[in-house]
Protein 1
Amino acid sequence: MREGHLPYAVVVKTAPPGFTPCDKLYDVGRCPHCAIASPNLNRLWADTWHTLGAEGWAAFRCNTCFGVTSVKMRFDTGGARMDSIALYPDAKEAHADIPDPARAFLQQAFQTLHAPDAAAVMAGSAVDAMLKKHGLTDGSLYARIDEALKLNLLTDGMAKWAHSVRLGSNRPRHADENRPHVSPDEAKQSVEFAEALGNFLFVLTAKIDRGIKAAETAKKSPPP
């Protein structure tokens, strides 16, 4: 959910006496599934609330991709509406441990999954930036993936995965006469690889470093 903005639904009375969210969920920045901005989310099902301040659940479906989002809601704000406490799944965000500009490119890839060509290009740009952060700046993206494997920055499996999604990410920039556009599934694979690469190269490393420091601090702490 966007910071400072709680998705909500207007309260509707039900019979027998009770309350339920209205047919639409408002103020959602992007669909958690297809990432389209300001999605049209229609209610599929909802609990019935009977007391102010009570919590319950509802499910809403995106009118664009038909993905279903489960929403935990609280009957609040004077009984006029129900505010969301949590969305499952929530909109994806690139991890803070991934350095810019790779993180910015990856975030744009998440946000453009509804436009496969754009998502694949952004995923390719994120991978390119990640490799450059490790000093791999010369040659094609494909060649630098191979170099990263030789330097043990990547596992053999990750390198094979990279080769399988690379054509999808590059096709919008170097149009293929027979298949000029990236399919939604190809774009999803490209974005998933870029996210996995970022987690492998940066997020996991940062987590290990923090764990080592925490362990060292714990050893220095006096016993209770």
Protein 2
Amino acid sequence: MKLLIYFLLCFPGKPVMSKTIDSLTPLEISKIIEELKITKFPLELADKNIKISIQTMPRRFRKNTFFQVRPKMNVSLLKPSTKRHYQIEINPALYTNNPGREAIRSILMHELQHVVDFTNKDFFELASFAYKYERNKAFRFQYERETDLHALKRGAGVGLANYRLWLYEQIKKEKDLEEKKRMYMTPEEIYIYLSVIENVRCKNIFIEN
């Protein structure tokens, strides 16, 4: 019986892609963000009442990008970090073609982790970070991969892998695809991470029982 419980818990089967959300709207994304602030970022975002809004992504950023976050470029930038207004920009193509709810929840955890990072920086630190992020590709790649790990630790799970699989299907040029794979964790890397975490958890369950 002990072995049966172990295998049922530790080998649940192959992940399945979630279905597209037919009625995806800015309001729906806002609801997901508010839910994640409470359930996944209660201390960092919910308790501090961090203001986050949804904006349409400018056309110049839309190539192979569907979500991005940044502080709003107004006087709030000069305020204390928790008083700034942050915005998540959405590529409008997502409203007619999306990877499903769990994938969207997972990539939004990644974006909200950026907001957490920004709230830990004052104006000058944020300006220095932005300059380094744009100018130093190695730094940018490392930072985005670390952000993926933070999202996984908060429970992004298979949804993040599903988002990347969907994203790869949207990219037409092989060069652009390879750059995405270097910049962010790939589905294979995510599955390996999840497998390691799950094996540790299952071994603890097996030992405790």
